Amino acid sequence: MKRVLPSALVPALALALALSLAGCGLDPAEQMERARASYAAHDFTRARLDLVSLLQEEPQNEAARKLLVRTLLAMGDGEGARQALERIAPGQRSADHAVLLGEAALLRERPDEALGLVDGARGSGAQWVRGMAHLLEGDPAKARSAFARGLEEGPEDARLLADFARLELKEGHVPEARGLVDRALKVDPASREALLADGQVATAQGDLLRALEAYSAALEAYPGNLAALTGKAAILGDLGRTEDMQAVLDAVPEGTGASPELVYLRARLAGAQGDWAKVRGILQSRSEVVRTRDEAAILYARALVELDQDEQARAALQPVLTRTPSNVAARRELARIQIAQKDFAGALATLEPLVAKSTASASDRRLYAEAAKGAGRGDAAQAAQRARAPSPQALAAQLAEADTAMKAGNWANASALYKSLLAVTDGTNPLFLNNLALAESRLGRRQEGVAFALRALESAPENASVMDTAGWLLVETESDHARGLRLLEAAAKKAPDNATIAGHLASARKGT
């Protein structure tokens, strides 16, 4: 008869086996050296195995125990780190012992304990613990003060700089966040927290290609890091690279807890693949994600609509608008459902805040016109006319927003805005097309950028800037180097003092 081990014993036995093999054939000094190398390579799982095995043989090896503490903290194991720290003899404790205990308390979500542990301690590390503890307590003002004091005491603390950047980002101070991240990367280009913060700030800035590079760098330096994996997957989704997004999510290590972000991303991927039943199944199995994340609730509602469950979709959206009445995406989705259910009065009320301004988008005006017609409103025809011809104020506001996004390098917003402008005009404006080509290329969608650049060239064949964009993208993408070079030469003749065109031409000539 085949014996089956109780499932609860399997992980314990696997760990015991791994520990028994970890030091096989190595003396303690060699094992310690290997642990140090694993730690330096950010292979924390391997380092932990060697260190635990070594300490079983040499329980008084304080160097191994200290490295184990830092390994466990890097792995997010606050309880294990606390136990290891308490076993270090008082005379052997490092100068930052209290800070390490505070970090372990933070990982166990005990901010009061963390604050008590660093009471009276000085230095950027202690201030970082205080700042993070205050954030856990929901007091960003105190966190800001602690972080600021920390930078006075230790201006080259990459982790503190990165977490201060996240606080600035959360409070909407994007330029300040970017400055702090850049400082953190200058201090330590390989800092995990700095790379992750760089990805977050770049995403907020709409520079998705930089965000992708930051998360990729974090994954290369810290293989399997969940924050980097989910960050990269989200950016790939934003870029429409569904297959790459799938590959990243498939690389999430087995046994990793299904964080809300991971649940949402898997549902989002299923939606991009058109598998709405899978979206519903994923989000129904984790209903707390739908209750607490607006974007998950909107995606869930969309899946329910696709599966002809409009009433349930409407119920899923209502809490979102109760929490955040200004959520435009939720209002649009709810209005579509209300129109489908012939609740035209409800749809009009839902859309009213969106169309009340002269700068309202054409898509919102079209939805409003549809609801007005269904409700039999006397001004339905007028509403339809306004939807067909956007107001000059709306176009001007959108153009100004697009121009600001271009100047700020917010390529994602710029792309969306110029696409919207093309949709409500005749689609031939060379400025819109040219800027959209640039934005798409900066987002890594270079072939799409070439297509828009060539459309701009059709509308303005003699414009030097348009010729430069088309020529450079043809060269850069290796679509048609000869034609690109001819365009750049013609652009340089028309604008001989333009440094950008001259640079592109010089680079193109080097490639011939």
Average pLDDT rating: 90
Low-confidence segments, given as residue ranges, are 1-19
Q: Report the principal-axis shape.
A: globular
Biggest sheet features: none
The counted number of beta strands is 0
Number of helices: 31
Q: How far is it from the N-terminal to the C-terminal residue, by CA?
A: 74 Å
Structural class: mainly alpha
Estimated helix fraction: over 70%
Overall radius of gyration:
28 Å
**Beta strand %:** under 5%
Structure overview:
- This is Tetratricopeptide repeat protein.
- InterPro entries: CellSynth/LPSAsmb/PSIAsmb, TPR-like_helical_dom_sf, TPR_rpt.
- This protein is mostly helical and about 500 residues long.
- The chain is about 75% helix and about 0% strand.
- The chain has 31 helices and no strands.
- It has helices at about 10-20, 30-40, 45-55, 60-75, 80-85, 95-105, 110-115, 125-135, 140-155, 160-170, 175-185, 190-205, 210-220, 225-240, 240-250, 260-270, 275-285, 285-290, 295-305, 310-325, 330-340, 345-355, 360-375, 380-390, 390-410, 410-425, 430-440, 445-460, 465-475, 480-495, 500-510.
- Helix 11 runs antiparallel to helix 12.
- The longest helix has 17 residues, at about 390-410.
- The protein is globular, with a radius of gyration of 28 Å.
- It starts with 8 loop residues before the first helix and ends with a helix.
- Residues about 1-20 have low confidence and may be disordered.
